[in-house]
Structure of 2Fe-2S iron-sulfur cluster-binding protein:
Amino acid sequence: MNYISVIDHEQNEVKVDAPPGDTLMEILRDNLFDVAATCSGAGTCGTCHLHVDEAWFGLLPQKDCYEEDTLRDSFHYSATQSRLACQITFDESLSGIRVSLVNSN
Ligand code: FES
């Protein structure tokens, strides 16, 4: 089973099914996590900001400059953990990835 492990705002950790080809934002939204995604995945709103477990962070594709700019404008930015969920497409190599929702307020 392909899955991602999500730590929500109350620090509960939940494993959810993850279809290859969906972005992490789509997976979170489809599983009713609190992700506003107001730009619908364009990478500009920052409301899908995640902290990725450091063991997984280095395995992700590199951020482009637009993602980096959006993240740097976000609360709780971390150079070693922050990513936009809408910019990461899930595939089998990411099964088991552990992410934490970031409060964007
Ligand atoms: S959905 Fe807006 S930045 Fe990801």
In short: Strands lie at 3-7, 13-17, 49-52, 82-84, 98-101. DSSP finds three helices and five strands in the chain.
